[in-house]
Amino acid sequence: MPTVPTDHLAGFRGKHVLVTGGLGFIGSNLAHRLVDLGADVLIVDSLIPEYGGNVFNVHTIEDRLRVNIADMRDEHGLRYLVQEQDIIFNLAGQVSHTDSMIDPYTDLEINARSQLSLLEACRHGNPAAKIIFASTRQIYGRPTYLPVDERHPLQPTDVNGINKLAGEWYHIVYHNVYGLRAVSLRLTNTFGPRMRIRDARQTFIGWWIRQLLEGQTLHIFGDGLQVRDFNYVDDVVEAMLMAAAHDVADGQIYNLGGDEPINLINLARLMIEVNGGGDFALKPFPDDRKRIDIGDFYGDYRKIRSKLGWRPQVGLREGLTRTIEFFRTHREHYL
Question: What's the rounded Cα separation, in Å, for the pair 117 and 112?
């Protein structure tokens, strides 16, 4: 029976670590943590403008890691990049739900086929690597009960959810059949420094932060009573490090989740309070968004808490305070 390390962070020193999508929001925060832990970090990112990569995200650590500008759809390049890596944090993806409905084939290529290409590259060229896949709560679709645990039916409401589900299950099948050490984390609404605030393609909370800083009115679709949970990015990074370090995570799927589910009206009020000003207004749902909206959602993370000891440490107010202050200082690099 594998044992859980008592100090999981010490094991990253000197390890060769690949972070796909590493110039993006979560990937770059993970890269900062990894270099501080003494890992030898290689970032791979396509820097396609629509997908959120930003070189400023690593500007303070650029001399402490390597960056390779490459596209996950290049399967020949992947075969080279995975070689000799001890750990692969697989965060590259197309995460816009509306974009997936407008251009489903690109979403399929990035979120399904490219994931298969990475796993094939590992199977043939580096079968000993540990792979942590960033999945999403979007694959559950509209919940039939709350909180949503890992046994909840999977019923995606959009193309993105379908392809992310496929990408996740490729990882699990390659663990079950070929013995690859893969684990999947189903992320909920992650927020924090270095997130995309240029538009609402990836996250509404980032767009709201930009609007607040620019004195614009926050627009909430529908009645504003939709409930969501949130994770501050540092807590998500910690979950990924735990999953990488713990052998008991191999082949497993874990939900993340927050301790403070909140409806969107109250979230807007909290953000306005933290910002020191602002206002909001309700708007009817645009048809394209209403068709893929999932209603209320908050996750049950008891499995990862019981198996790996993870739980969120940064409260919603504190996380928002840190995030707004970051963008108050660095906003020009994210527009």
Answer: 9
